[in-house]
Amino acid sequence: MSSTSTTVPVPSASSLARSAAAVAAYFGALFACLEGIAERVTTAYEEQGVMTAATVSELIQPLAAETLAAHPVVGAGFVASPDWLSDREHYLAWWQGEDQRLLAERGVPIGHHVFDYTRHEWWQVPLATGLRHVAGPYVDYVCTDEYVLTATMPVLVEGRMVGVAGADTLLETFEGLMREDVRADDTIVVNGHDRVVVAADPLLRSGQRIDTTAYTEVQAFDDLPFRVLRRT
Amino acid sequence: MTEIRRHGSRARGAIFAPLGDVGRAGQVEQRLTEAIRSGVLAEGERLPSEPELAAMLGVAVVTVREALTGLRAEGLVTTSRGRGGGTFIAAGADADEEALAERLGSMSRAELQDRATQYVLVLAGCAELAAERADGDEVTALRSLLPTEGDPVGAWRHADAELWLSVAALTQSARVTRDVVRLEADFGSLARIPFADPDVREQTAHHHDRLIATIAAGDLEAARQCARTHLQSTLERVVRTQADVHDRNRMPRSAS
Fold first, then answer.
1. B45 vs A107, A143, A193: nearest CB
2. How confident is the model at residue B8 (pLDDT cuts 50, 70, 90)?
3. Nearest-CA neighbor of B143 among B203, B221, B210?
């Protein structure tokens, strides 16, 4: 799992600018919401010292509802680090769906004894880098049963990750939002694994791996594992 | 902007979806029993708390309590109090070989063949697309799911199920993955009956290694072939077991 978040200065009036701005705007606004969730957890922990599943759920529920209302996401919330909560090993203060159902604890639908979410990219990358991340597109068979992009940011207390704040966006939703700009620029948005997220070319399937060296115009982001590509 | 879909989980969601108005405790008990027997809810897994279950299922807490009492009586769940307590899926609840044989016996031979054909076709197709689409990190993730030699049969079955589910997810198709979740919930516990035999587990471990190697190599044809060969050999055993069960069931009548 690699996060190729690179720092490339934004050249003005680039032919990629419109696509890049659309990607940055979507995730910029979403992460602003997730920062609110992260801050709420940090502040509450500093005040109370010990956190339970019930406390953290009560704390996060209104913010998750706000995130679901303000952004076209299918789920949002906070996922606790194993053993951080005093009463649960694994816990997801996460709401999803039209009815905003609480996930609480999950098992893999037909899988292992416990759903160990710590092996998933959306957990691993924030843990390893201490930075925000967008995982996917991938089929999330544990929570949404959909093809999604998962945005997560670490929630840190004294330098230790106590969980992640995150939100799931359906790939089809993101594609719909980006389509016009990507078509106008004739670009491809790829993730850190050089897989297509959304492309102007309708024959490039989302999730398809491509040889990115064939593209001469490249725009990376400071804080997203995505790049915008274009052939000259 | 196009309509935004906000589906919740289907596989698990189906278990915890709100119920109708009548016979609710019985319905809760029946639904959870089926989920435990088929391995959807796994041994050692903690159920949501009584108030959480009540909220998820749209029933009163007292109804949930009644259903859990029934499940406890059948030995499917255990409850412990205090910190770290809760209601857990009991050990061996899913690995009741007699219950599995009974289910297999109640099925016609034609139905078993029909289900086996669908199962092999879908999973072999998943293996082929996974070989086309997986990258190195994803192959590593598959390896991390493999069961180990000393694992008890229940853990072995779960690990194998999750491996195939992960292979399905590598197709990058949510629909295909949901189909596989449904197939597994319906038929997976029967397809894994032969794992009770340690020799089958050993053989399967080799097949797992080979399957992952073909996916890593990006060899579509070999991955499909490997999946097919493995699943067919396992399912042949299931067919033979079913024939034995049918014979056994007929015997008392023919003797009388």
1. A107
2. very low
3. B210
